[in-house]
Design a protein that fits this description.
508 residues, alpha/beta, GMP Synthetase, Chain A, domain 3, 8-stranded mixed β-sheet, 5-stranded mixed β-sheet, 21 strands, 38% helix, globular, oleoyl-CoA ligase activity, AMP-bd_C_sf, transmembrane helix, transport
């Protein structure tokens, strides 16, 4: 029986017995007995393990909802909320520009943004106009869009294609994301946040700079992420919170051990994309007390967050009172992206093994992005899991795993593109290690050794070009290899072997 059903049965029996005048002690004992007899031992275990987590999550949710409703009723915008912060502590440092050491107080940021607002207003720009900002991460970036927002101008942030309407008309998206992070991870105004993410990205702009504008935190702006300087910066500016996204944590683990990596004040790392395979290595090596992993986006209708540091989880939903935050994992058609419905027209809940999965305690785990799982030899291959294994074997090297079509062969064969700028990777030593950790169907059939693997501005691996070029040596000058199962090793893939594979003369 589901936890909700068990709870309902227990409460129902309690109410019925009290209605007939049965004493409280006997009523409670009977209700407990009915609950346990209906599978309630499992519910009791869930309650004991998750009650404190759920209560804290509920308090965060209610606080954000209440504050958001109050701000909406008062018709507040982000610039208006920023004015309150300026009044509270005008001379506190708001932004630190790491490249020059320049410090902007809240008063100076306010005056700069006012100058921006007056400039554009005097030049005829009005409410609803759109101006593009094409600028590297620096304090002026924040001052520009904040100033535009003060007179109703929309900022189109180049490289992310995001128009921050919420800065002008309402605070629903901006406040919800910034406030949820603030309360869920127990941030406070005295915190110093290290932001090495691009400011055109919502994580750097909202989750990062948003803590400065709305809650008064000091934010250190890094012009460009540097793995070698990361912990030196954190120690220098006494940062207590860091942000990560994509592969940043893996890049940091790949650095040589240095003294500064344990001489910092960082207590919290907040972001998304931390691989479960390196989660504990990251927290132990760098002595980070809490990982604030979350899942969602600016365009999502809901988000989830890991508020208690559960290893590998990107969030949770209460199993005791699931309807308090009524979200469900449902299936979609991967081709049309439409919701799959049953004969009654209702959405179909996901089962364990789907893209985002939930365990018995309500913790949710990210498995793969839709479309990143391919089928080979009748089995589903998770690119995320294979990438994690390969990267671990190769000392956190950049790896992209994807499926490629082979003429006349059902499914897609696995292919791995590996960053190997110094040509140190030995394919057959790699294969020996893969045999120890991956089933045969998950081992890449093709390898591509490249000087580098393409990534986005937020350090996410790009696979579109790699998938398009496939294993065709005509399409690339990178070193290609084919897994010859008869020989039990990878062999160089040239034009002749490529033709034999495509004609079906070589068994895969």
């Amino acid at each position: 029986m589901q936890p909700v059903g068990v709870c309902t049965a227990s409460l129902g029996s309690l109410g019925l017995m009290r209605f007939f005048g049965v004493p409280w002690v006997w009523s409670l004992a009977a209700a407990l007995g009915i609950g346990l007899g209906s599978g309630g031992w499992r519910l009791l275990r869930v309650v004991c393990k998750t009650a404190m987590r759920d209560l804290f999550g509920l308090s965060v949710l209610l606080r954000v909802k209440y504050n958001l409703r109050w701000h909406q009723k008062a018709k507040h915008t982000v610039p208006k909320m920023f004015q309150d912060v300026v009044r509270r502590h005008p001379d506190k440092v708001a932004l630190i520009y790491e490249a020059t050491g320049e410090k902007w107080t809240f008063r100076w940021l306010d005056e700069y943004s006012n100058a921006v607002a007056n400039f554009f207003y005097q030049h005829g720009f009005r409410l609803g106009d759109v101006i593009a900002i094409f600028m590297e991460s620096r304090p002026e970036f924040v001052g520009l869009w904040l100033g535009m927002a003060k007179v109703g101008i929309e900022a189109a942030l180049i490289n992310f294609n995001l128009r921050l309407d919420s800065l002008v008309y309402c605070i629903t998206t901006y406040y919800r994301i910034a406030a949820f992070g603030y309360y869920a991870y127990r941030m406070h105004p005295e915190d110093i946040l290290y932001n090495c993410l691009p400011l055109y990205h919502s994580a750097g702009n909202i989750m990062g700079v948003g803590q400065c504008l709305i809650h008064g935190l000091t934010v250190v702006i890094k012009k460009k992420f540097s793995a070698s300087r990361f912990w030196d910066d954190c120690a220098k500016y006494r940062c207590t919170i860091i942000q990560y996204i994509g592969e940043i944590c893996r890049y940091l683990l790949n650095q040589p051990v240095r003294e500064s990596e344990t001489q910092h004040c960082v207590r919290l790392a907040v972001g998304n994309g931390l691989r479960p395979t390196i989660w504990e290595d990251f927290t132990k090596r760098f002595r980070i007390k809490q990982i604030g992993e979350f899942y969602g986006a600016t365009e999502c209708n809901c988000s989830i967050a890991n508020v208690d540091g559960k290893v590998g989880a990107c969030g949770f939903n209460s199993r005791i009172l699931p309807n308090v935050y009524p979200i469900r994992l449902v299936k979609v058609n991967e081709d049309t992206m439409e919701l799959i419905r049953d004969s009654r027209g209702l959405c179909v809940p996901c089962r364990p093994g789907d893209v985002l999965v939930m365990d018995e305690l309500g913790y949710m785990y990210f498995r793969d992005r839709s479309g990143d799982t391919f089928r080979w030899r009748g089995e589903n291959v998770s690119t995320t899991e294979v990438e994690g294994m390969l990267s671990h074997i190769l000392n956190q090297t950049d790896v992209a795993v994807y499926g490629v079509e082979v003429p006349g062969v059902e499914g897609k064969a696995g292919m791995a593109a590996i960053a190997d700028p110094k040509t140190k990777v030995n394919p057959n030593i790699l294969y020996q290690e893969l045999q120890k950790v991956l089933p045969s169907y998950a081992r890449p059939i093709f390898l591509r050794l490249s000087p580098q693997v393409d990534t986005t501005g937020t350090f996410k691996i790009q696979k579109t070009r790699l998938q398009r070029e496939g294993f065709d040596p005509h399409q690339t000058s990178d070193r290609l290899y084919f897994l010859d199962l008869k020989l039990g090793k990878y062999v160089p893939l040239d034009e002749c072997l490529h033709a034999r594979i495509c004609s079906g003369k070589v068994a895969l």
